Amino acid sequence: MSITVKDVEHVANLARLELSDSEKEQFAGQLNAILKYAEKLNELDTEGVEPTSHVLPLANVMREDVAAPSWPIEKVMANAPEEEEGQFKVPAVLE
Fold first, then answer.
1. What pTM, to 2 d.p., does this model score?
2. How many domains does the chain have?
3. Residue pLDDT, tens place only, 13-72
């Protein structure tokens, strides 16, 4: 598979980019070099290699979701610049 200047123009159009002719040629060459390098992976013998999503075995590192008592509302609101009916009062951002 190879990337043509026409492919670069199509992607540039989708991305709303204006590219000069020299940039189109440059990007086509660079993208083809990337594809050529990626094709080297097909040369690897992957027989017997189990597919993985990560190189290291990972387990869920989250803590248990345990219910805990909340802080008292008075203590929470002690640092609020403004408070109204037990809620933080902030300036309106919508009209």
1. 0.49
2. 1
3. 999 999 999 999 999 999 999 999 999 988 889 898 888 888 887 777 788 889 999 999
Q: Would you state the structure tokens that stand for residue 19, as one six-digit string?
A: 């590219």
CATH number at residue 19: 1.10.20.60
DSSP result, 40-74: GGGGS--TTPPP-SSSS-----PPP----PPPPHH
Question: Considering the domain boundaries, does residue 84 fall inside one?
Answer: no
Q: Which two tokens stand for residue 7?
A: 């492919």
Tell whether 70 is covered by a domain.
Answer: no
Distance CA 20, CA 28 (A): 12
Q: Are 31 and 3 in contact (CB under 8 A)?
A: yes
Q: Is residue 18 part of a domain?
A: yes
